[in-house]
Each structure stands twice: as structure tokens, then as C-alpha cells.
Write a structure and sequence with these properties.
Low-confidence stretches: none
CATH superfamily: Alpha/Beta hydrolase fold, catalytic domain
Number of helices: 8
Oligomer: single chain
CATH class: Alpha Beta
Structural class: alpha/beta
Strand order of the largest sheet: 1-4-6-5-7-8-9-10
Largest sheet: 8 strands, mixed
Helix content: 25-40%
CATH architecture: 3-Layer(aba) Sandwich
CATH topology: Rossmann fold
Number of strands: 10
Number of domains: 1
Strand content: 15-25%
Order of helices and strands: EEEEEHEHEHEHHHEHEH
Distance between the termini: 24 Å
Mean pLDDT: 91
């Protein structure tokens, strides 16, 4: 596996990311060709590109799939401040950059979104024909309902802990969040998803419950869609065995889709 620190400049801001590239002998076709790519869309704040090496990148590259993970604007090493609008809009810049990378097959681009990143990934895939496959882990299925939860203020405290997320100063974050998530809500865009898609979630999701995942799955317009619920998994799949099974299931799904597209 090769690692390439790849920061992407968006307007005047920097998105910090790392591109993990398989060795040539791991290419699914056994030759020195372009690799399919998974772009990981973080939650809030999600996992740093460095920490994602052991979570996902190593295993994906072992199966001949390149993997790019990055911090949203206003998160950790990325510059600026975080807004849901900017996080959603910046996915397009990331795709724009990576489809021209010398090791990447521009016709085999997938998104893997976790939690809030799942919501963002779905909303982006609904309007970007370059995304050929989509996978969502514990996705927020209705972004507008989140502010009605009693723990929303606690989420803000968690997100800003140790300055891991930076929000616009002098703003009412709840009102800002409400106004922005109305435009990018998965429940309103799921019927525009035509790509192959897989959702994996936990039955014991302590943040979102489990009903919303199935409702979202039913709204997807894709003819190739899969839904898998893990009976003992929580929102973040903190149990190592659940996490490994989830990761392996996603890798199998992506491999099947990419190999089929390359034949």
C-alpha cells in the first residue's frame, strides 16, 4: 500500500486528506491499470485520515481498491469553519480532483458515508452521475429531525471538544443547522438514487434508533440495493467484531460492483 498525503484546495480553504493506493499486484485484473476508488465521507467530526488507515484503508487496498479519506472544512487539520452547506458542496470538489488522478479509474468511483457522512454521501450521489456505487453506515436518514432530539446541544459540545470542529462565530448553531439541512435531507432525495447502494446499521443504535434506516432503504430508487442490520451493533459499531464484519461486508459489496463494471 502506498500513502499519498493529498490536501485539496477549495476556494481559499484546505481539505486535509490521504489517498491510500494498492500495490500493483493487488489490482483486481492483475495488471498495472487504474484502480477503482472509494471516497470516505466523514460524519461530524468522524475519523481523521490518519486513523482511517487501520479502520478501512488497509483492507480496501488489499482488495485492489484505492481509498481516500479527508477532514471536512473546519475539522482538525482542514482550514476554515464547518457548515453543513460547505461539507456538502465540497464533496464535488473532492470528486473533481480525484477523477483526474493518475492512479484512479474515473469510471469507478464509490462513496462510503458514515452517520452524518452517510446523509451527505446520499445527497451528493443523487446529483452526481460520476458516483457509480454508494455505501452507507448508520446514515442519518432525516437530517431535519436531529435538532428535535434532546441531546442535540450535547452533540454540539462533543463536536467542538478539543476544537476538533470549528463553527462560524456569533451564530446560533441550531438555527443555522436547521436552515441548511432542509436543502440536503436524505429522506427527500433517496428516490433519486439509481446507483447500486448498500446500507448497514445497528439494531442497538443509541442515537438514531433502527426504524429510520429501513424507511430510508425503502425510498431508494435503485434496482440494486441491499440492507443489513446487525442485531447487537450500536451507532458507531464500537464492538470490534461487529466493525470487522461491517467492513468486510462493504468491501465485498464494492468489489462485486467494481469487478462487474470492469468486465
Amino acid at each position: 500500500m502506498q500513502k499519498e498525503e493529498l490536501d485539496i484546495i477549495v476556494r481559499e480553504e484546505k481539505l486535509h486528506g490521504i489517498l491510500y493506493i494498492p500495490e500493483n499486484n493487488n489490482h483486481p485484473n492483475g495488471s498495472n491499470l487504474l484502480f477503482p476508488l472509494i471516497i470516505h465521507i466523514n460524519g461530524m467530526p468522524g475519523t481523521s485520515p490518519e486513523d482511517d488507515e487501520d479502520r478501512f484503508a488497509k483492507k480496501f487496498t488489499e482488495h485492489g481498491i484505492a481509498y481516500y479519506c479527508y477532514d471536512h472544512q473546519g475539522v482538525r487539520q482542514s482550514s476554515g469553519v464547518f457548515t453543513y452547506f460547505s461539507a456538502q458542496a465540497n464533496i464535488e470538489y473532492v470528486v473533481d480532483y480525484l477523477v483526474h488522478h493518475r492512479f484512479i479509474d474515473p469510471l469507478q468511483i464509490g462513496l462510503l458515508g458514515e452517520s452524518f457522512g452517510g446523509a451527505m454521501a446520499l445527497c451528493h450521489a443523487a446529483r452526481d452521475y460520476r458516483i457509480s456505487v454508494l455505501a452507507l453506515r448508520s446514515p442519518v436518514s432525516d437530517t431535519e429531525i436531529v435538532t428535535t432530539y434532546s441531546f442535540f446541544d450535547d452533540l454540539l459540545k462533543i463536536w467542538t471538544r478539543n476544537k476538533q470542529m470549528r463553527f462560524p462565530p456569533d451564530k446560533n448553531m441550531k438555527n443555522l443547522y436547521i436552515s441548511q439541512t432542509h436543502h440536503y435531507n436524505p429522506k427527500n432525495m433517496a428516490d433519486s438514487i439509481n446507483q447500486p447502494v448498500k446500507i448497514i446499521a445497528g439494531k442497538r443504535d443509541e442515537l438514531l434508533g433502527d426504524k429510520g434506516f429501513e424507511d430510508l432503504f425503502k425510498k431508494l430508487n435503485s434496482t440494486q440495493k441491499e440492507f443489513e442490520i446487525f442485531p447487537k451493533a450500536n451507532h458507531n459499531f464500537t464492538n470490534p467484531k461487529d466493525f470487522e464484519k461491517m467492513r468486510d461486508s462493504f468491501i465485498e459489496f464494492f468489489s462485486k460492483q467494481f469487478n462487474g463494471n470492469s468486465e
